[in-house]
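Hello Y.,

Per our agreement to keep a running log of every chain we model this quarter, I'm adding this entry. I've kept the format consistent with earlier entries: sequence first, then predicted structure.
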Amino acid sequence: MNLGLELKGLVENLNALIDTVTAIRGHVDSSIAHIPGAANRLDKITGETESATHHLIDIVDALSDNDAAISKKLDELNKVAVKSADPALSSLADDLFSLFGKSRDEHSRILELLQFQDLTSQQINYVGMLLNKIETELLTISKAFDSDKGAVTSGDKGIAADPNATFIAGGANQSDVDDIIGQFRQVDN
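Predicted structure for the entry above:
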């Protein structure tokens, strides 16, 4: 057994290990550098989606206000049609009532469908939390290689994040829609 050859083999193995660890550290550091940008991009997407949803809710609220005014006018038209006993006018009033009912129902349906924004936001926030967890774990690994590094992460922003949030079409009734609108109005105030 030649001690010199074994030491030489050990040194070669250590050098190869150091090269591997250095390469891994480079990949870890690169990943750490990209995670905050990805998390910020997800926050921006959530914010823009939320803003657009609030604008849509405002539009539907305005349409609902119009619905109330239209309903009063249709009641007046119905009274005139009944008094006149004109079948053409009564038919027109009936048709308008039918169309109005469909329009009002569609306004409610739009509000119901807007719940996707909250669910999407929760899913995106969950992904952001996972990115922050990965960032923390990568920083821990990087710190093991370099004791000068401190573990500073993007962190949890205290936001709702549900990895199982889903949207079920037709799953809400009018009271659910009213609750959703009430929540948005509270946020705006």
